[in-house]
Amino acid sequence: MGRGGEIFVLNMGTPIKVDDLARNLIVLNGLVPGKDIEIKYTGMRPGEKMYEELFRPEDVRRDTGNDDIFVAVPGIATWPF
Q: How confident is the model over 56-72, as pLDDT tens digits?
């Protein structure tokens, strides 16, 4: 699929809340969230994001023929970034 130098972006699927993921893992291990294992909310650390941008506004998204793989064609950057 690659010809050299492409930027491939994978379809990550539906976003999942970290809280839901943690609770599911606890339950799948036969335990009770909040009783057997405490869930603590610590907030975001410096530099963390609530979501990730897969493409910049100036990038072009190109299909590859596979629904789960895209190619990001970088647009021309302008100054200042």
A: 888 888 899 999 999 98
